[in-house]
Design goal:
Layout (H helix, E strand, L loop, with lengths): L1 E10 L2 E11 L4 E5 L6 H8 L7 E6 L8 H7 E4 L11 H11 L4 H14 L15 H13 L5 E5 L7 H16 L3 E6 L2 H7 L2 E6 L2 E6 L1 H8 L4 H9 L8
Parallel strand pairs: 3-7, 3-8, 5-6, 6-7
Antiparallel strand pairs: 1-2, 1-4, 8-9
Helix pairs in contact: 3-4, 3-5, 4-5, 8-9
The structure holds adenosine-5'-triphosphate.
Adenosine-5'-triphosphate (ATP) binds next to strand 2 and helix 1.
């Protein structure tokens, strides 16, 4: 379980995250939905130990990354907003390298890597250098790399950004599979349909604050809108920055 308590982060004049609290449970997909610039990426970065909060606390299975960042990183698989693949390495080599960084032995790396290549449909390009990969191929490689050590929790920053319809469907199916394995899946998106299609729980973020935190059904109920898209617009107060 991932818990976020009263997180704050300011960059100069910009209050990027202004008191965000929520929980993401194991065996559920939690979506952070918000318009461009709402503070989603900054929140996730504090969660996966890339950035420290000015104030507030993150707990991953009760462990605070400010106290034990290595223990937290072992529990997390992270697809960051910039995928940063090593372009001279093949997809397989990129995955293996991360397994070694996690201290795994070669047999375990090979087994996990091939299972992920199969699950993500990467067989056609796994032996190629990542230089020149399409967006979908890059995202898949970055996800396989993030999951090679078998983390309990998965954090994905805009996982379907730039993917075509087929790749998006495959990514959604993969996220459901992770959820059904009991993992805690937390992802960010500014695409309402995405969140509506996938999430057990939706945390709506606007201007660095949580504007709503509920299941899709509860959101419909709370707003009195049967259509989730209308419910989101009502909660956020504007359609700006949200893609249907
Ligand atoms: N390193 C930084 N330095 C200065 N400002 C930043 C930095 N990171 C984020 N910001 C600002 O903080 C605010 C929140 O940005 P953030 O990237 O968290 O939003 P987001 O919800 O992920 O948006 P998007 O959907 O566009 O990716 C924005 O105004 C952004 O310009």
């Amino acid at each position: 379980m991932i818990e976020v308590k009263d997180l704050h982060k300011t960059f100069g004049e910009v209050k990027a995250v202004d008191g965000v609290s929520f929980s993401a449970r194991d065996g559920e997909i939690t979506g952070l939905l918000g318009p461009n610039g709402a503070g989603k990426t900054t929140t996730l970065r504090m969660l996966y130990t890339l950035m420290s909060p000015d104030r507030g606390q993150v707990l991953v299975d009760g462990v605070d990354p400010a106290v034990d960042p290595v223990a937290v990183r072992k529990r997390l698989g992270v697809l960051p907003d910039a995928h940063g693949l090593y372009k001279r390495l093949t997809a397989r080599e990129n995955i293996d390298y991360f397994g070694r960084l996690q201290g795994m032995d070669e047999a375990a790396i090979a087994q996990q890597r091939e299972a992920l290549i199969e699950a993500l449909g990467m067989g056609d390009f796994a032996a190629r250098r990542t230089e020149g990969f399409s967006q979908g191929q890059r995202v898949k490689t970055a996800i396989a790399r993030a999951l090679v050590h078998g983390p309990d929790h998965v954090i994905l920053d805009e996982p379907t950004n730039g993917l075509d319809v087929m790749a998006t469907r495959a990514m959604r199916a993969f996220m459901r599979k992770l959820r059904d394995e009991g993992k805690c899946v937390l992802f960010s998106s500014h695409i309402m349909q995405e969140v509506a299609a996938l999430c057990d729980r939706i945390v709506v973020i606007a201007h660095g604050r949580v504007a709503a935190d509920a299941s899709p059904d509860q959101l419909r109920e709370q707003t009195g809108e049967s259509n989730l898209e209308d419910a989101f617009v009502k909660i956020i107060g504007t359609e700006e920055g949200l893609a249907a």
